[in-house]
Design a protein that fits this description.
By secondary structure, the protein is an alpha+beta fold. It contains one helix and four strands; from the N terminus they run αββββ.
Length: 95
């Protein structure tokens, strides 16, 4: 019985150590990720970066500036069918 209790305490101690290690590494990993975004913007690879959806950008609308996808479509006027589609994610948009 004593051996089981000792093993349980060791396992709890190991779990606590893993939890502490994860708590320390999480902000470090996040900082590295954010510094990568800053570098991409600084060197001109991107003009802006969305942290929730890498393909979306800020788009100016009448009342606000939501994060959106810029998709262009062409429609056949007679049959009302989509005949062309283009996602403009690589184009720089002016804000």
């Amino acid at each position: 019985m004593e051996e089981l209790e000792r093993t349980d305490k060791e396992m709890e101690s190991e779990d606590q150590a893993r939890t502490i290690e994860a708590a320390i590494l999480s902000p470090v990993e996040r900082r590295i990720e954010l510094e990568g975004y800053l570098e991409r913007i600084t060197w001109g690879e991107e003009t802006q970066v969305s942290l929730t959806d890498p393909d979306s950008r800020l788009m100016k609308t009448k009342d606000s500036m939501p994060v959106c996808l810029n998709v262009q479509t062409a429609v056949d006027g007679k049959n009302k069918m989509v005949v062309g589609l283009r996602s403009a994610i690589r184009y720089r948009t002016k804000i």
